[in-house]
Each structure stands twice: as C-alpha cells, then as structure tokens.
C-alpha cells in the first residue's frame, strides 16, 4: 500500500520570465510524492495555461487516481488513465523515482542508457528592450553559456536580434517566437535570422495556423513546440517542420 501526497509549491524566479504570451516572476509547481515501504519517490510538473491547465486542475487529476496509485498503479497503467500533460508527467516521474530508490539504482541504470560526459543546454534571453536583451546575452556568454535561446514577440525583431548578436558574436542563437508571428512577412524574418547566424527558429506561427509552413522555403530549420504534444502529433508536422 502506497501513501500518496499531492501539494503545490511556488519558487521565486531570479529574473522575471517574459515571453510572447506574458510574464511570470515565480514558478508554480504541483509535487507528487509516493511512499512505499519507507521509500519515497517524488515528481513534479508545471501546469501550463496554454493547454488549459492550472494548479487546481492538475491536482484534481492526480487526486482522481489516488486510489489506483495507493493500490500500486504502474507506469503502463498510468498511460491509459491520464492524458498526456502535466499531471501524468508528475506521476510518471514519481513512479520512476520510486522504483529507482527502491532498487538502489540511478534512472539511467534503470533505463539501460549511458549518461553523456557533457551536455550543452540553452540559456534563455527573455523579452525586454534591445539593450536589456543584449546585456543579458553578454552576461550569459561571459558565464560560459554557448547556446542562447532568444525569446521574441512580434515587435522590434531586427533591433533586438542585432543588439544580441553584437553583444555575443560567437554564441549559437536559437529564436523562440512562441506562436506570436504571422505567415505574412515570415519569409523576410527568416532571411534576417539566417543573416544573423541564427541556428534555428522555434514555433513561429500559432499551432492552428502552421499549415502555412507546408512547402514554405526557408533558409534555417524550423522547430515545432506548441504544435507537438505526443507521437500522434508527428504525422501532421511532416513537411512543416524539420525538428
């Protein structure tokens, strides 16, 4: 018999996280704890309003399967009980953590995969004035960040990107528009990004408008984000995205 605990936590952010959809100054998460035979597994998730999720709705989803979790619900059974989303993610992570701790193994050992010696991750430059974004890029580069993810909305694109490129001329840049652009003018923006050495453009168009990317000729890879949720999303992305 497992003990199940579900609760909310809020973590203040060092810097407000500003993207095209809005700004937040704290990270609110739902934490799931599963305890069995004195061993505790923990998972967490961030509910995403973009997909109709909230702290309350995600906690309700988890608590709705509380009896099954207490009775020994497996990861395979979880896939059938909850849809893909924040709630299933938190429970799935808690189940993996519980198994790893019970068996005294790392997650990589459970999965049978070797960990890489080094992983380069992207550091985010949030939306601000051109000067603010340039200063952020320069500071991140000086701290050792090699890959910068630049958040943009539909305004001041060239001014912001030129300032960032001048501030961090050797950094690898990727741009994330978070669905804020339109098909009109997209070709010219892609050319600008390519001229500035941007390596990839992420989700420029709204997910329900990305059919405009079919047969769209562009000089840099375009990556799906909001358009891709599960493997079932993949067929409709063919011919629209490279990543």
From TrEMBL:
<dbReference type="InterPro" id="IPR018110">
    <property type="entry name" value="Mandel_Rmase/mucon_lact_enz_CS"/>
</dbReference>
<dbReference type="Pfam" id="PF02746">
    <property type="entry name" value="MR_MLE_N"/>
</dbReference>
<feature type="binding site">
    <location>
        <position position="202"/>
    </location>
    <ligand>
        <name>Mg(2+)</name>
    </ligand>
</feature>
<feature type="binding site">
    <location>
        <position position="176"/>
    </location>
    <ligand>
        <name>Mg(2+)</name>
    </ligand>
</feature>
<dbReference type="InterPro" id="IPR036849">
    <property type="entry name" value="Enolase-like_C_sf"/>
</dbReference>
<dbReference type="InterPro" id="IPR013342">
    <property type="entry name" value="Mandelate_racemase_C"/>
</dbReference>
<dbReference type="InterPro" id="IPR013341">
    <property type="entry name" value="Mandelate_racemase_N_dom"/>
</dbReference>
<dbReference type="InterPro" id="IPR029017">
    <property type="entry name" value="Enolase-like_N"/>
</dbReference>
<dbReference type="Pfam" id="PF13378">
    <property type="entry name" value="MR_MLE_C"/>
</dbReference>
<dbReference type="InterPro" id="IPR034593">
    <property type="entry name" value="DgoD-like"/>
</dbReference>
<keyword id="KW-0479">Metal-binding</keyword>
<keyword id="KW-0413">Isomerase</keyword>
<dbReference type="InterPro" id="IPR034603">
    <property type="entry name" value="Dipeptide_epimerase"/>
</dbReference>
<feature type="domain" description="Mandelate racemase/muconate lactonizing enzyme C-terminal">
    <location>
        <begin position="130"/>
        <end position="223"/>
    </location>
</feature>
<dbReference type="InterPro" id="IPR029065">
    <property type="entry name" value="Enolase_C-like"/>
</dbReference>
<feature type="binding site">
    <location>
        <position position="225"/>
    </location>
    <ligand>
        <name>Mg(2+)</name>
    </ligand>
</feature>
<dbReference type="GO" id="GO:0016855">
    <property type="term" value="F:racemase and epimerase activity, acting on amino acids and derivatives"/>
</dbReference>
<comment type="similarity">
    <text>Belongs to the mandelate racemase/muconate lactonizing enzyme family.</text>
</comment>
<dbReference type="GO" id="GO:0046872">
    <property type="term" value="F:metal ion binding"/>
</dbReference>
<protein>
    <recommendedName>
        <fullName>Dipeptide epimerase</fullName>
        <ecNumber>5.1.1.-</ecNumber>
    </recommendedName>
</protein>
<dbReference type="GO" id="GO:0009063">
    <property type="term" value="P:amino acid catabolic process"/>
</dbReference>
<keyword id="KW-0460">Magnesium</keyword>
């Amino acid at each position: 018999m497992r003990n199940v605990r579900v609760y909310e936590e809020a973590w203040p952010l060092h810097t407000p996280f500003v993207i095209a959809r809005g700004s937040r100054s704290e990270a609110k998460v739902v934490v799931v704890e599963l305890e069995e035979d004195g061993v505790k597994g923990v998972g967490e998730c961030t509910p995403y309003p973009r997909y109709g999720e909230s702290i309350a709705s995600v906690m309700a989803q988890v608590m709705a399967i509380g009896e099954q979790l207490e009775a020994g619900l497996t990861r395979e059974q979880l896939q059938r009980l909850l849809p893909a989303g924040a709630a299933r993610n938190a429970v799935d992570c808690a189940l993996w953590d519980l198994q790893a701790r019970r068996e005294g193994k790392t997650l990589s050992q459970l999965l049978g995969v070797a960990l890489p010696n080094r992983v380069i991750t992207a550091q985010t430059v949030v939306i601000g004035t051109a000067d603010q974004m340039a200063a952020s890029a320069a500071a991140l580069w000086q701290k050792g960040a090699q890959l910068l993810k630049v958040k943009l909305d539909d305004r001041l694109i060239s001014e912001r990107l030129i300032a960032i490129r001048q501030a961090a001329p050797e950094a690898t840049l990727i741009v994330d528009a978070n669905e804020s652009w339109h098909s009109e003018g997209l070709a010219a923006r892609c050319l600008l990004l390519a001229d500035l050495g941007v390596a990839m453009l992420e989700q420029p168009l709204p997910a329900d408008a990305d059919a405009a990317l079919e047969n769209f000729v562009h000089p840099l890879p375009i990556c799906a984000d909001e358009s891709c949720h599960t493997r079932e999303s993949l067929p409709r992305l063919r011919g629209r995205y490279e990543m």
